[in-house]
Write a structure and sequence with these properties.
Layout lengths: L20 E6 L7 E5 L7 E2 L6 E8 L5 E8 L4 E8 L6 E2 L7 E5 L5 E8 L2 E8 L6 E2 L6 E7 L5 E7 L5 E7 L5 E3 L7 E6 L5 E6 L5 E6 L7 E2 L6 E7 L5 E7 L7 E7 L6 E2 L6 E7 L2
Length: 288
């Protein structure tokens, strides 16, 4: 089910110090999604999973870079749950209690995993030990709470809350008290936040242009500014380990258009296309 992620060979997923990027890929000819890894300096992606009947998506590196958590779902769309695997191959493990769950995020200490899980018709945020127990439900709302991301000190989660009107905002929750604070405005269309080690939150916002662009904000809601502005859709940002760059998916206005991974500096400079295949490259996560 998995093959080794070779480290150190030229043109592969990168040397151990290179902080590989893991992502999901599918093509029109092969609609089943598998996980790949690529060096942040480019090269040929390495295929990590080989499945013919189930899709593997939404990968999340463990803090030590030795395992990847991801979501597996069947051809009928039913989510099988969250799994983890070694990047060197083998030890594929299901996380108990996560059937139907999505958006896994590994805690900074490597001991816990946050995820979104259906409760009735909505999804709520949960945290569990990496073995699945005990699972603690953190949010109780009539909205969809999705895509949790940990603060560097492990004391908070940020996530996006989507309401029935179609708006979505970035929220922050303190794990010790479950106190919640809005980071972005209630009329926003903000998705897929990622919290950096330098204590900034990147997210994708559909703004007045009608396109999704990348924005940055401080955890207290101040310092909001846009870092991409193309007439294309930019989504699923993930921070580099040093907080200086982001990897994200850029696609056209049409769902049939290919979607590629790009890199950009947090100051909006240095835009670079990372993947170039005729594929959909999604949900990248940069190795810590």
């Amino acid at each position: 089910m998995a093959v080794p992620l070779t480290l150190g060979a030229e043109g592969d997923a990168g040397a151990a110090g290179d902080h590989a990027i893991v992502f999901a890929r599918y093509t029109a000819a092969a609609p089943i999604e598998d996980l790949y890894a690529i060096s942040s300096s480019g090269g040929t992606p390495v295929k990590l999973t080989h499945t013919s009947t189930v899709s593997d998506v939404i990968p999340s590196w463990s803090p030590d870079g030795k395992r990847v958590a991801f979501v597996r779902y069947g051809s009928g769309g039913a989510i099988d749950g969250i799994w983890t695997m070694k990047t060197t191959g083998g030890e594929l493990k299901a996380v108990p209690g996560t059937k139907g769950a999505s958006d896994p995020a590994w805690s900074p200490d490597g001991k816990r995993i946050a995820y979104a899980k259906p409760v009735g018709t909505q999804r709520e945020i949960y945290v569990a030990d990496i073995d699945g127990t005990p699972a603690a439900r953190l949010t109780h709302t009539a909205a969809d709470d999705l895509h949790p991301t940990w603060s560097p000190d492990g004391k908070y989660l940020a996530f996006n809350r989507a309401d029935a009107s179609g708006h979505s905002r970035v929220m922050r929750i303190r794990l010790s008290t479950l106190a919640q604070t809005a980071v972005t405005g209630s009329g926003s269309h903000d998705w897929t936040p990622d919290w950096s080690h330098s204590d900034r939150i990147a997210f994708s916002r559909v703004d007045s242009s009608g396109f999704a662009h990348l924005y940055l904000v401080r955890p207290d809601g101040t310092g909001l500014h846009r870092i991409t502005a193309a007439r294309l859709n930019d989504k699923n940002p993930s921070w580099s380990p040093d907080g200086s760059r982001l990897v994200f998916t850029r696609g056209g206005a049409d769902d049939a258009d290919p979607e590629h991974l790009y890199l950009v500096r947090a100051d909006s400079t240095g835009l670079t296309q990372l993947t170039k295949a005729d594929s959909h490259d999604l949900e990248a996560d940069w190795r810590p």
